[in-house]
Amino acid sequence: MKRALHILIAICLAALAAPAWAADTEGCLACHQYRGLSRISSDGKSIEVFYVDPNYYSMSLGPHAVLKCTDCHERSQVEVFPHLPVSPVDCQRLCHITGPNQVEVRFSHDQVAGMLEHSVHNQKNLAIANDLLGKPLKDGESRCLLCHDEPSFRHDGQSMAAADAPIQRCDTCHDEQLPINTRQFYWHVVARAEPARNKLDIVRTCAMCHSNPAIRARFNLPDVTASYLFSFHGKAVLLGSEETAGCLDCHAGQTLNVHEIIAPTDPASPTNPANLPDTCRAPACHRDAGARLTSAAVHLELSGGWDVEFFIACLFILLILFTFIPSLLMTALKMLDVVIGRRDPEEHARQQKVQRMLEDPKTRAQLTRFTVHQRLQHWLLATCFITLVLTGFPMKFADHEWARWLIGEFGGLSWARTIHHFAGAVLILGLLYHLIYIARGIRKECKTSGKSWVRALTGLPMFVGPADVKQMNGLMLYLVGIAKNRPAGGRFNAEEKFEYIGVFWGSIVLGITGSLMWFNTWTSQHLPGRILTIAIIIHTMEAFLALLHVGIVHMVSVIFSPRVFPLSKAMFTGETPASEMAEGHSEMLPRPEAPNA
């Protein structure tokens, strides 16, 4: 009775099902086309899903779309309903494929199995990996499935529709006279000329073993997935790039079969030191680069030893701690002064004097701190900086969703890099122009005053001298409550001068390191490739330091401080608000004349 009920259910499902598929002559999809077809495993720890996408067969989306289910599954086990316990599929089983001309062709994966046995992924190693992974594959199940899965869901409606035009053109000739399953040919043969998976999927597949602590300990392997994703190539892959080098581009190269991956110690390996220059200079990669490119770190690891990269990273961490932390502390203390309402006893009088000077056309010009020329340079710098941050920092945080979204808004990684390069070039040109601007100012001062160029240089408004260091110390003493009066600042106070030096230094460092990476072909031809690794570390650290200072310290001073909120008008009109002038630039105010003796 129970068996009859099962048969009746199968008949009803078959009646409700979509029309029969060409490859499904056995009627398996009558049941297996339903997504909810599943059961809880016998141990109660997992759910076994038996759904098969019918589009896989109707659209010929994969290599097995022309096979019957019993070409892989034992007929005696699945021809009855309900099925008998189904044995694991053996990927090396001999297949009997029948083409459109009804001629049977025998095929097996024995050749692939032979390739694997001569690679690092031989059956012994795969069996060990399967055990260490917790046995995701049962006894007797093909170890091929550790890396492979049936690509049933990789093609969306758009990609299938895009294939209709070439398939229809093929059908013009390949009809009954020249019978070929053109759709199967397209998806299986033509599509296989390109990787079946995108590069991020390949990294995930490799990471299943190469990031597993137990497997790495058993085979004495470093965490190559983490070090790859920390590198430039890995971050590009995380952001969706298909142009950058992935795992197979290096470890299988342009000529080897992906089943023949061998250890770097093997002389035939693409990653062997003797072969690595040619691997990196493959036509699809750095084809014009110098051989020394190979000393750049593809797997970037800073904690692996006491090398120069490690010391540079430590140096910048110390630089961040000893420059940003004091600046952040001073900013926090200034905000605390605002909250508690503490003011310099003389500030109110100075503010009234500033207000009177601003109201008088004769004295108003004396309080102008920035010329039109200087304001234009500032806005050029600000525009470049914002653009560089928006296009560059997603590379630093490529594993975050917001980074992928932002890169997508720029039209993809390629466009984002182009915009980043353009903004960087404008920043470098702006820096060169500013140097010419300074040189002209020094020359003019030398001519008019007769000073030497050294004295003219040290007399520039933004030059940091001993008095500025003393002023910074006095400001800190005032902010912590030790000093009663705030030290007076001139046209540019000590804080602004130190910020200017930071921008000057940062623009030079970022410009040099960015150019080395941008023109990496020239770099690898004339300098050791390791310079590229050092450049990317310095570029990243300096950019992070710049963002901390500008994004927190500078923005508080010119936007979020109650003295100037919502925005200081100094960079629009050149004039500083009265409260800000009285607080930080009181040396610009005329001193009261001493009484006559």
Describe the SSE topology.
Elements lengths: L1 H15 L12 H4 L5 E3 L6 E3 L4 H5 L16 H4 L16 E4 L5 E4 L2 H8 L5 H10 L24 H6 L1 H8 L10 H9 L8 H12 L2 H7 L4 H6 L2 H7 L8 H5 L24 H5 L27 H33 L6 H13 L1 H4 L7 H25 L4 H9 L3 H37 L3 H6 L7 H14 L14 H25 L1 H7 L3 H31 L9 H4 L4 H7 L13
Counted by DSSP, the helix tally is 28
How many strand elements? 4
**Helix content percent band:** 40-55%
Query: Biggest β-sheet, characterized?
Result: 2 strands, antiparallel
- Strands in their spatial order, largest beta sheet: 1-2
Straight-line N-to-C gap? 127 Å
Protein structure class: mainly alpha
Low-confidence runs of at least 5 consecutive residues: 13-21, 593-597
What's the overall geometry?
elongated
Radius of gyration: 35 Å
Key terms:
597 residues; mainly alpha; two-stranded antiparallel ribbon; 28 helices; 4 strands; 55% helix
Would you give an account of this structure?
With 597 residues, the protein is mainly alpha-helical. Among the domains are: 1-87, no CATH class; 199-295, no CATH class; 369-460, no CATH class. 55% of the residues lie in helices and 2% in strands. The protein has helices spanning 2-16, 29-32, 54-58, 75-78, 110-117, 123-132, 157-162, 164-171, 182-190, 199-210, 213-219, 224-229, 232-238, 247-251, 276-280, 308-340, 347-359, 361-364, 372-396, 401-409, 413-449, 453-458, 466-479, 494-518, 520-526, 530-560, 570-573, 578-584; strands spanning 38-40, 47-49, 95-98, 104-107. Strands 1-2 form a two-stranded antiparallel sheet. A two-stranded antiparallel ribbon has the order 3-4. Strand 3 and strand 4 form a beta hairpin. The termini are far apart.
